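COMPLEX REQUEST
Ligand: nicotinamide-adenine-dinucleotide
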Amino acid sequence: MRLADKVAIVTGGGSGFGEGIAKRYAEEGAHVLVADINPDGGDRVAGEIAAAGAGHRVAFVRTDVTQDASMAAMVQACLERFGRLDIMVNNADTSQPNGPMLNVSEEVFDHLFAINVKSIFLSARHVVPVMRAQESGGCLVNDTSVAAIRPRAGQTWHSGVKGAASTMSKAMAAELAPERIRVNAICPVAGETPLLLPKLMPERRAAFEASIPLGRLARPRDVANAALYLASDEAEFITGVALEVDGGRAI
Ligand SMILES: NC(=O)c1ccc[n+]([C@@H]2O[C@H](COP(=O)([O-])OP(=O)(O)OC[C@H]3O[C@@H](n4cnc5c(N)ncnc54)[C@H](O)[C@@H]3O)[C@@H](O)[C@H]2O)c1
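STATUS: Structure written out below.
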């Protein structure tokens, strides 16, 4: 068990990559708080983890990662239920309209920024003090995107906020290292999740897959395995990386 007795929060844990991470962490012995704005998804994932045999090690808490009070309540719920917090996964996001940059409204941009950048700021405010007080420290894993490294037309603002999230992860890593708190980012390529699949027509999917050297989209298990490694003690000397999980797309 690579995460035995560790406690993790996974935001956006009710779907897609976050669901994959929450389930993988539970398989490896972690206690997992699934945090999601969507109670249907969050309850389903927590229920499936419980049914797989980890009933006492999982809970769901409805959370809006863009709201300070909600993030504070999420961390409090984790401490009340599991007594500590070792791993914070910032993963929640919403589906973004693809297209020309001037077609994106100010309202959509503000939400993009809040869910991808402000959420990390808010998680730091509430999570870092808890980890500081623990002798063993802790780690944060921020789900950004390969678009942070290799931005493309039609994804200008989304690429920008993911770039900010990756840079913030590295800056946090530098600042928090003396306190035994590691911070890393994961940069997935387009994935087989509800965020993208409904928008992906078969011909576009084929073109996308052809642009990925390993020839397929990312699966939740790919991102989960990377998030597992970064959260495990095997990565105790790894901090400040932005790990591409992209089949070679960023080469
Ligand atoms: N799927 C892709 O193609 C892709 C590619 C690169 C990066 N990513 C990143 O991976 C992460 C996960 O994406 P996914 O594809 O699994 O998405 P998804 O849509 O399958 O899941 C996102 C989850 O976040 C939750 N959520 C939305 N708004 C929230 C809020 N305000 N507070 C709390 N929870 C909220 C949703 O309810 C949902 O359960 C995101 O950060 C995304 O940007 C995804």
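REMARKS: The chain has one domain: 7-238. The mean pLDDT is 96.
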